Amino acid sequence: MVKQQPNWSPYDNNGGSCVAIAGADYCVIAADTRMSSGYNILTRDYSKICKLHLIYQHQHNKQMSCPAMAQLLSNTLYYKRFFPYYAFNVLGGLDNEGKGCVFTYDAVGSYERVGYSSQGSGSTLIMPFLDNQLKSPSPLLLPAQDAVTPLSESEAVDLVKTCFASATERDIYTGDRLEIVVLNADGIRREYMELRKD
Amino acid sequence: MSSPAFEIPPKGGFSFDLCRRNEMIAKKGVNPPSFRKTGTTIVGLIFQDGVILGADTRATEGPIVCDKNCEKIHYMAPNIYCCGAGTAADTEAVTDMVSSQLQLHRYHTGRESRVVTALTLLKRHLFNYQGYVQAALVLGGVDCTGPHLHTIYPHGSTDTLPFATMGSGSLAAMAVFESKYREGLTRDEGVQLVSEAICSGVFNDLGSGSNVDVCVITKGHKEYLRNHLLPNPRTYVSSKGFSFPKKTEVLLTKITPLKEKVVVIEGGDAMEE
């Protein structure tokens, strides 16, 4: 008997893109707010950025550091290794020294600390542009170089806005509105920008 | 027993020799190349003086937009235009072909082309190819018998309607038509309704987008309003611009001269003519 193809899949691709860039003393995280399914738009106002730190703080009596959070997320994803979460994550924050740190994940929890990353349907359009503008040093070079970008905070935000405006032009799943979160020593700042709605 | 010196050519009709081979290759994971489709919204309606056609301008290749401002309203005859949805190559080829056939027919008969002529030529061609030519068309025009609007499906069936929509955005556009269409619209009301229907497709369907094209055809006169509406300007242009470093970095240069393999014989024979 030929193996039966399943009639129903528990997974659905809701599209969208996200980006994070690590700076010397800040971290910029951005994502569009469109949720879609097939050719339809389900909502134009869905936030893909979440703040994570409260449970750890209560149990361990200290603020959760970014590398600890990165490991937690990796474990959470790998826990479901044989029925994965259909999620491609980018984690952004400030490390213990106050420098920006960005971690990029695959669907089952493999992660790496990088200077910048993008995931989602628009990542194939955004990543080459970030590679060109931010040119991360190869992790194979010695002595080990810092992955953070020398750009200023406003320049990084400008870069992110351009990335999304361009990705929206060519990717049908990216658009509606851009949510930008900037983390620095002063705290968290949120900014929104309108994108093409078609 | 000797095998035939040449292959006997097939008698005609379809040859399905490669189907098993294609299936086998697909099973191994190599998929056939994707086509450029115009995931589209196209509409047409009849108003008091003639026909109005409308279309969006986005062409997609899967999830990527490959053309932000393509033309989906094709010329068939001075009094007939046709909007096309489906595979871009198919809609272009089939409308160009029928447009040429109509021109030849006009020379032959000395008369203005009729919409039903274009309709019959298109449906015969599409039926002949049993749906493999994936062109879904909205054909509209005004001839000596009056204004006409038809839809043609990829398998060759047709409908004659007072208002019609096709493409991935057809449901969004039809929702607008069903609520607001009435008989005897004026030109401006008709253009307004068509623009609204296309905009509904542009904003609610991911396969449609960018601008709105409109074409108004009346007795003896046509107006092709290319980019009638541009509701999607680029949202952000960086004020400082970007610089792009020259090219790929050269990390290492190593030149290896190839050894010569020519043996030179002193005083050998001269070359003969």
UniProtKB/TrEMBL annotation, chain A:
Q: What is its main location?
A: nucleus
Is Oxidoreductase one of the keywords UniProt gives this record? no
Q: Which Gene3D superfamilies match?
A: Glutamine Phosphoribosylpyrophosphate, subunit 1, domain 1 (3.60.20.10)
Where it sits in the cell: the answer is: Nucleus
Superkingdom assignment = Eukaryota
Biological processes per GO annotation: proteolysis involved in protein catabolic process
The record's listing under InterPro entries reads: Ntn_hydrolases_N, Proteasome_sua/b, Proteasome_suB-type
Keywords attached to this Swiss-Prot or TrEMBL record, sorted alphabetically, are:
Cytoplasm, Proteasome
> SUPFAM superfamilies of this UniProt entry?
N-terminal nucleophile aminohydrolases (Ntn hydrolases)
| A Gene Ontology cellular-component term | nucleus
Q: What is this protein called?
A: Proteasome subunit beta type
TrEMBL record, chain B:
Alphabetically sorted, this entry's keywords are: Cytoplasm, Hydrolase, Nucleus, Protease, Proteasome, Threonine protease
Q: What is annotated as the active site?
A: 40 (nucleophile)
Write down the chemical reaction(s) this protein catalyses.
Cleavage of peptide bonds with very broad specificity
PROSITE patterns in the record: PROTEASOME_BETA_1, PROTEASOME_BETA_2
Q: Where in the cell is it found?
A: Cytoplasm; Nucleus
GO CC aspect terms? cytoplasm; nucleus; proteasome core complex
Query: Could you provide one GO biological process annotation from this protein's UniProt record?
Result: proteolysis involved in protein catabolic process
One Pfam family of this protein, by short name?
Answer: Proteasome
Any single GO molecular-function term of the entry would be: threonine-type endopeptidase activity
Q: Which CDD domains does the UniProt record give?
A: proteasome_beta_type_7 (cd03763)
Q: Which family does it belong to?
A: Belongs to the peptidase T1B family.
This molecule's function is given as:
Component of the proteasome, a multicatalytic proteinase complex which is characterized by its ability to cleave peptides with Arg, Phe, Tyr, Leu, and Glu adjacent to the leaving group at neutral or slightly basic pH. The proteasome has an ATP-dependent proteolytic activity. The proteasome is a multicatalytic proteinase complex which is characterized by its ability to cleave peptides with Arg, Phe, Tyr, Leu, and Glu adjacent to the leaving group at neutral or slightly basic pH. The proteasome has an ATP-dependent proteolytic activity.
Q: How does it assemble?
A: Component of the proteasome complex.
| Name under which the protein is recorded | Proteasome subunit beta
Q: Which organism is it from?
A: Rubroshorea leprosula
